[in-house]
Amino acid sequence: xxxxxxxxxxxxxxxxxxxxxxxxxxxxxxxxxxxxxxxxxxxxxxxxxxxxxxxxxxxxxxxxxxxxxxxxxxxxxxxxxxxxxxxxxxxxxxxxxxxxxxxxxxxxxxxxxxxxxxxxxxxxxxxxxxxxxxxxxxxxxxxxxxxxxxxxxxxxxxxxxxxxxxxxxxxxxxxxxxxxxxxxxxxxxxxxxxxxxxxxxxxxxxxxxxxxxxxxxxxxxxxxxxxxxxxxxxxxxxxxxxxxxxxxxxxxxxxxxxxxxxxxxxxxxxxxxxxxxxxxxxxxxxxxxxxxxxxxxxxxxxxxxxxxxxxxxxxxxxxxxxxxxxxxxxxxxxxxxxxxxx
Length: 342
Known about the structure:
By secondary structure, the chain is of the alpha/beta class.
């Protein structure tokens, strides 16, 4: 039997911005996104700022309205749930936000913040909730004596540990980590990543790990999905995506990972031309074509379909179906000149 916990099918999110004396402006922030996550698995979701990663994470938890598509968690379809039914379902899924200070109530003690979901969802007494909160505080690497302190008395890494303790208080199956370590220094990032990994193993958790730092994503993720302008352009096992990228955007992102090796060639750094297009007025055909060194005529005419990749996963790129006909192979040493001659 499949151990699939989270199933997202063709989910789209549209925001409508109203302005005085102007037409309502609609922006499709997420466009027909599909992916699945198994129990005990981490899916890394990467891309530039504004690519739709955080909106996708919020859509999966129904924190933003979904225009179309289906979201299933643990066999339960969340798409049409509202009110009490959605509130009941949310105990199975939680979120760890980027800024732990803004996600914690500054006027509440650590114990009170962690106890609140227990009293709201499990209807336990304040004493029982506090006892459980003390256990969770120690579970994430802090001391029980920290329970009556306030968020401002902790460092950023400690606050993120508190946020994680609150997220696992209800024993969820699925957690969305939205840039959960991007605001921390490098040594603290490693500590929090190791904590997340330990909790995933101990409680068989599934993570959607959203980040722009591909080095961190490689360390924690089993599979990776790459987003550009609201769409997933490539997905697959982490090692395949990192070692043999099949989409030019993925290749460019990977080239930006810092590498201190003195043997690394400087010309391997790929600098993308131009800016990310306006999501309200995306380019015709492939949305990445305006910044792609391999763009062909067909890229302006038709949106590429998802194609299976050797080694696992899919990619949406005409290089796999037209021009040089890579047919599922990685980009490898293809050059823009070679593509233009094809």
